[in-house]
Each structure stands twice: as structure tokens, then as C-alpha cells.
Q: What sequence folds into this?
């Protein structure tokens, strides 16, 4: 009997799979494994001081029911929404503005580009300490300057009306270079001919930006926004160093609340339930954005 | 898989996860004592951590002496109080071997000892081969050792500090110039603050922002408490009129007489503000107040001290002990004990007192010594006596609220509640009603039956 040889295409696929297998295995070990463990833990009341709570699945949705009845959790989600939306908008605006200013070939602009990247490459805890100093009324150059010109500013991080804003400013300072870098790359990809044509047609700078530049960089803006939105949910070091979630709970975002439950109270089951909901929320958010931008791209095409 | 084996594997997984945090330490640790070497522990490296108080920070400068004496090398760090506690809590909960000696934090004593995460030290204390008689464990203050014991009386920590909250004035000359004495009651305190605040550009009042520690004496002074009858009845009692009254008074002190951003002052900031004379009066830990008489202080000749002022229901100076303990999973327990013995020896502590003015020590013989008494006299005021009188007051038992295993939960809620009141987000009654509801929820979640 003649043995049928697999097609070239099938062999190729098999080879690709064999090549990918080690990477997929590592991926499964370092991402899927902990994720499954997190979900399983969220179904137990695990409290480290009470070993008998481990693998206790007698009330698997108990933590989730508690969460939806927990006003601190819903408040933390609202704080997270305010923080994420405001930081993403500010980072896009500042990043775009700086990218437009630096979009050119002079030596000073090249130096400035490197300089603007510094906040992004600093360790987050260093950024936190830097802004802690900036917000310390006694020693901050900002506060001293404002006092010197007769406009003293109260402490931003201890004032409930300003504390979240203080975090937003620091977060924006740290991460606007990311959007700047992406948008700068997009700006430099714009061909010269449509810009020249617009100028010949008598378009002013605003019109050139609105009708020529903006359509070119719009997809990059969306991608940068998605990256920053997802990353903003991880905001932790700045809050830890600057406000500890306070005053009261005005800067207590959801991951900070999860941290408090798990690490301060040892309630790992409850903390894991919060983390699981956050992971689910990020998946849903990414999917919705992907769908929306897919529809927008199709309409543009 | 049986339930028991599942439990073991989960604990192992936690251990692996938490242990990985300490890989840099663990890589260096774990060597067995050298056989036949000059020093019995040659080649052993200990990983030791404590929060950044005066005593543990001073020790860092003397570690080479310890290594020369025993052959034991030490990896040592002193992070901030909350960071240390979270790290130690996690490490101890895994029963891992990442650390060989850890501080037993006062508010975690019940939790860590009760859960069996620390090594009983009695076999070391009582063994004459491991501990010479002249080290004299009986010399430690009974009140300081008490929180380090379990229900059977076994000892899990050697207290290095028993700190008390007391009152300090950095610029008592301003008080005197206005005919004022150190306030002995809340009424006197408020009247004094009205007069001295902003005199000569000095803010009247300051206090560290660990409200779960510094606010409680006020809460008790007005007749309130954290729990109904700790440790037997842990029903929170944060929604009482007394607590609200205390919070309003406390917020008024801070907001009306504090420096700019007073609500954000950490213990280090309060200490420095006092030493620099930028703040006049604070209720603060004795160990930090003692630094007002040390080199670098600008207020040595203008300072004054007193016991915490009393409220309508009495005087309740906060007292807290911290001690050295050995984690259950530590691999070099004999070497760990060597470190504890050395760092808590009478001779070593006496040197720290003499050279650095270390206060709030726990050995009776040192507290009674002339050298200590002289060193604790700052500008003619015997702060050592205030310390001992405050510790004596705590024997009434009003500190029991602090060593229950769920105090960390209540502590977090009190911190947030006071913060809301001080920052003007909520009225005291509303804020503490919220704290009460949240604490009840947290305690139930932690398995406490109310």
C-alpha cells in the first residue's frame, strides 16, 4: 500500500508548530498557569493566617457577591476610571504637542527628543520620589516659587480636591514621552507631497493639521491611547509613594484596593477576586476598542 | 488529590512565589557553620530586616563588629514601617527561609505568633550553652516581653524597644513668654495652641500621619475605644459619639494649628520639624523626642517634655513594643540567636545610649542606670521618667486593642477615617460610621465572629 505523504503546506505548518512549541510552553507556564491559579484562588476565602481556608470551594462565588456589595470596590473602580481617562487624554495631548514641535531635523530638536524620553525610562519608584519632593510644601521648588510670587499653593497630595489631579500630573509627566515617540514616528512617515499640495492650495497651519496630518496619525493615536489606557490601570507606584490611596480613599484605585486586601489584610481570596475582575475588565476593554477601531478603519477604507 | 496534600502544594507554591522575591538574599544565605574553623559560625550569612527606627538604623554601623566576633556576615536592611510590615508578613506567611531575623512588629504580634510563623525562643534563652547567665533575660521589662508571648507563655521575640507617646515642645520659650506651662489636658492644649501658633513663625502643632497609632490616645481620652472588649469581644466601636468627638478635636488641632500640609507629615518629618524648631508642640514617640537633645538639634535649650495630656476620660499614652524574632523557616537559627544576643546585650545597648542617646530601651538595669538617666535628661527634663510613668500607666490594659490579630484591618480603616475628617471630605460622625461598617465587613471576611 502506498503511504500518502503529507502535503508541503501541512509539513510547513507542522514545522512552524514544532518551532513555536517551546515558546508556547513557556508562555503557558508564565502567564496561563498563574492566571488559572489566580482564578482558582478567587473562588476560595483564602486567608494566610487561616490555612484551612486554602482550597475551600464551599462558596465559590462568595468573594464576587461580596465585591458587588462592597462600596469601596465600586468607589475604587470609579477612581480608576477618572484616573485612566484623564491621564490618557493628557498624555495624548501633551505627547502630540511635543511631537509636533520636535518634528524636524535640527540638532537642538534631536537633543530635545532624547531629553524628553528620560521620564519614561526612569524606574517608577524614582519618579514617585521625585514627585514626592515636588509636592512637599517645605522643600518643593514649585511651592517655593509660587509662594515667592505671592501665590502660595496648598499641598496637593493631602488635599482631597487635588490629590487625584496630583497623581494625574505625575503620571502624565512619566508617560507622555511614550505617546510623543509613537506620534513622532508617525509624523515622520507622512509623505511630503500632500503637505506641499495643501500649502500650494493656500491652506493655513490649522487646516494642514486637521485635513492632512491628523488623518495620517489617527491610527497611531488610537494605538497609543489603547496602550496607555491599559497601562494606566497598572498605576501603582506613584499612588503608593505619593498618597497611599488617600486622603481617605480619593486616590485608591482598584489595584491598590486589591493590594490592600491581599497584602495588608492577608485576604488573598478576596484580593484575587478583585484582580480577576480587573483582568476580565481589561480583556473586555481591549475587545471593545478593537471592535470600534476595526469599524472606524473599515469606514475610512 | 486529598485536601491535606492540596494544602501542602498551595503552601509550597506560595513559598516559591514569595521566596523568589528574596532570591538576591537567598543566593548568599544558607551556608552551614564551618567545621573546625576559628569561629563557630564562619561562613554563615544572615538576612536581617527591621523597619527604620533609630535603634535598627544605628546597628547598621556596628555590624562589622558582629562579623569580627562571630564570623557571621549580615545582609541588613531597614525599609519604612509599612513596607517592612508587608514584606515581613508575606515572608512569614510562607514559612520561607528568606530571612533569618525579623522584627516582630507590635500590631502583628498576635497574628504572627498565633499563626505559628515564628520560632519559640525559650530553648535558646534557657540553654546555658547558648545563652550565658549574665545575658539575663529577666532584665527585660515584663510589659515589653508580654506582647511577644503566646497563650502558653512561650517567648517569640526579644523586645528592643518599648516606645511611648509623649508630649514635646521644641520652643517652650514661646510657651513661657506667654505664661503657659506644658498642657496637662485637652482644654489646656487647645488654649495653648491658640496662643502660641505662628508666634515667631513657628507652627503650633504637629503629629505623624499614622493615625491608627497617634489618634487612639485621643479616642480613648474622650471615652471611646476601637473594639468593645478586646481581645474577647472584637466588635468594632468606631461609630460612637466619643470617637466622633475625638476626631473633631484632633482634626481641629491639626488644621488650625498645624504647619502647611500637616496631614502628610511622617514620623521623620515631625522629628525634623521639632529639631529644626519649625513646629512647637507634638505628641510623638519617646524614641524620636529623645533626638531633640542630640547633635544637630536647634532646640536643645528651648525644649520641654511631658506626659501625654489627659482627656475628659483620662490619660492613655500609647505604648508599643517591637522585638527581634526568628522566622519559623529560618535555616540558621543558632546564628540568628547569636545576632539577637549580641544586638540586645546590655553592653551593646549601653554603648548606643552613651554614644547616640538611644532612648526607649527595654532593659531594666539600663533604665535604672545613671548613664541612661543623665542621657535622657534633655534641657533639665527627665524624659526617662516620663517614659517609665507612661509604661506603668499602660498596665491598666488599655493597649489590648492593638495586639489582636485583626488590628491591621481596623488600623487601615482608622487611618482612612481620620484622613477623611482632617482633609474635610466628611464630618467625623459620617466618616467613622463608614469606618465602622467597613471594619465590620473586613473582620467578618477575616473569619471573626461578631
A:
Amino acid at each position: 500500500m502506498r503511504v500518502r505523504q503529507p502535503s508541503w503546506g501541512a509539513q510547513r505548518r507542522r514545522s512552524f508548530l514544532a518551532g513555536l512549541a517551546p515558546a508556547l510552553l513557556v508562555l503557558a507556564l508564565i502567564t496561563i498557569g498563574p492566571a488559572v491559579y489566580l482564578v482558582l484562588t478567587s473562588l476560595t476565602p483564602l486567608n494566610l493566617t487561616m490555612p484551612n481556608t486554602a482550597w475551600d470551594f464551599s462558596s465559590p462565588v462568595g468573594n464576587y457577591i461580596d465585591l458587588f456589595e462592597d462600596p469601596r470596590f465600586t468607589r475604587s473602580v470609579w477612581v480608576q476610571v477618572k484616573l485612566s481617562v484623564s491621564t490618557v487624554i493628557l498624555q495624548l495631548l501633551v505627547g502630540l504637542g511635543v511631537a509636533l514641535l520636535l518634528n524636524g531635523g535640527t540638532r537642538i530638536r534631536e537633543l530635545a527628543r532624547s531629553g524628553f524620553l528620560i521620564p519614561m525610562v526612569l524606574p517608577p519608584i524614582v519618579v514617585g520620589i521625585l514627585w514626592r519632593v515636588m509636592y512637599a510644601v517645605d522643600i518643593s521648588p514649585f511651592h517655593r516659587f509660587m509662594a515667592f510670587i505671592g501665590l502660595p499653593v496648598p499641598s496637593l497630595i493631602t488635599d482631597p480636591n487635588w490629590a487625584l489631579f496630583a497623581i494625574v500630573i505625575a503620571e502624565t509627566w512619566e508617560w507622555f514621552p511614550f505617546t510623543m515617540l509613537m506620534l513622532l514616528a508617525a509624523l515622520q512617515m507622512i509623505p511630503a507631497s500632500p503637505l506641499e499640495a495643501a500649502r500650494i492650495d493656500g491652506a493655513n497651519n490649522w487646516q494642514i493639521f486637521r485635513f492632512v496630518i491628523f488623518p495620517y496619525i489617527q491610527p497611531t493615536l488610537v494605538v497609543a491611547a489603547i496602550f496607555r489606557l491599559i497601562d494606566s490601570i497598572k498605576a501603582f507606584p506613584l499612588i503608593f509613594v505619593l498618597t497611599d490611596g488617600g486622603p481617605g480613599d480619593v486616590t485608591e484605585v482598584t489595584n491598590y484596593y486589591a493590594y490592600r486586601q491581599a497584602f495588608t489584610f492577608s485576604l488573598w481570596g478576596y484580593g484575587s477576586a478583585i484582580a480577576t475582575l480587573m483582568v476580565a475588565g481589561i480583556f473586555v476593554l481591549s475587545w471593545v476598542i478593537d471592535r470600534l477601531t476595526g469599524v472606524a478603519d473599515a469606514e475610512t477604507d | 488529590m486529598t485536601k491535606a496534600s492540596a494544602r501542602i502544594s498551595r503552601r509550597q507554591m506560595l513559598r516559591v512565589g514569595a521566596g523568589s522575591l528574596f532570591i538576591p538574599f537567598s543566593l548568599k544565605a544558607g551556608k552551614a557553620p564551618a567545621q573546625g574553623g576559628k569561629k563557630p559560625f564562619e561562613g554563615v550569612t544572615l538576612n536581617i530586616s527591621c523597619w527604620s527606627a533609630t535603634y535598627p538604623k544605628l546597628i547598621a554601623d556596628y555590624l562589622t563588629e558582629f562579623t569580627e566576633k562571630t564570623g557571621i556576615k549580615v545582609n541588613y536592611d531597614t525599609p519604612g514601617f509599612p513596607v517592612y510590615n508587608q514584606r515581613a508578613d508575606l515572608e512569614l506567611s510562607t514559612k520561607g527561609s528568606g530571612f533569618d531575623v525579623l522584627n516582630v512588629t507590635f500590631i502583628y504580634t498576635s497574628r504572627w505568633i498565633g499563626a505559628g510563623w515564628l520560632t519559640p525562643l525559650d530553648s535558646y534563652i534557657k540553654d546555658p550553652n547558648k545563652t550565658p547567665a549574665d545575658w539575663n533575660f529577666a532584665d527585660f521589662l515584663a510589659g515589653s516581653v508580654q506582647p511577644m508571648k503566646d497563650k502558653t507563655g512561650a517567648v517569640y521575640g526579644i523586645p528592643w524597644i518599648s516606645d511611648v507617646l509623649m508630649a514635646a515642645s521644641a520652643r517652650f520659650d514661646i510657651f513661657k513668654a506667654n505664661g503657659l506651662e506644658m498642657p496637662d489636658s485637652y482644654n489646656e492644649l487647645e488654649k495653648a495652641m491658640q496662643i502660641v501658633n505662628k508666634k515667631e513663625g513657628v507652627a503650633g502643632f504637629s503629629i505623624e500621619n499614622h493615625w491608627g497609632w497617634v489618634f487612639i490616645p485621643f479616642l480613648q481620652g474622650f471615652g471611646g475605644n476601637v473594639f468593645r472588649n478586646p481581645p474577647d469581644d472584637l466588635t468594632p466601636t468606631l461609630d460612637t459619639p466619643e470617637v466622633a468627638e475625638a476626631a473633631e478635636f484632633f482634626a481641629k488641632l491639626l488644621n488650625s494649628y498645624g504647619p502647611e500640609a500637616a496631614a502628610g507629615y511622617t514620623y521623620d518629618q515631625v522629628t525634623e520639624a521639632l529639631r529644626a524648631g519649625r513646629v512647637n508642640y507634638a505628641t510623638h514617640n519617646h524614641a524620636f523626642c529623645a533626638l531633640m537633645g542630640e547633635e544637630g538639634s536647634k532646640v536643645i535649650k528651648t525644649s520641654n517634655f511631658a506626659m501625654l495630656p489627659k482627656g475628659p476620660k483620662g490619660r492613655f499614652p500609647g505604648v508599643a513594643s517591637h522585638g527581634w524574632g526568628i522566622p519559623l523557616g529560618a535555616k540558621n537559627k543558632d546564628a540568628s540567636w547569636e545576632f539577637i544576643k549580641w544586638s540586645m546585650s546590655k553592653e551593646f545597648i549601653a554603648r548606643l545610649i552613651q554614644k547616640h542617646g538611644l532612648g526607649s530601651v527595654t532593659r531594666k538595669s539600663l533604665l535604672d542606670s545613671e548613664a541612661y538617666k543623665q542621657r535622657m535628661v534633655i534641657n533639665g527634663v527627665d524624659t526617662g521618667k516620663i517614659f517609665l510613668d507612661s509604661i506603668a500607666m499602660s498596665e491598666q490594659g488599655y493597649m489590648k486593642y492593638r495586639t489582636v490579630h485583626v488590628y491591621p484591618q481596623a488600623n487601615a480603616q482608622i487611618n482612612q477615617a481620620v484622613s477623611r475628617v482632617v482633609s474635610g471630605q466628611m464630618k467625623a460622625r459620617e466618616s467613622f460610621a463608614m469606618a465602622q461598617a467597613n471594619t465590620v465587613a473586613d473582620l467578618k471576611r477575616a473569619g471573626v465572629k461578631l
Q: What stands out?
A: Chain B touches chain A through 42 residues (CB under 8 Å). The radius of gyration of chain B is 23 Å.
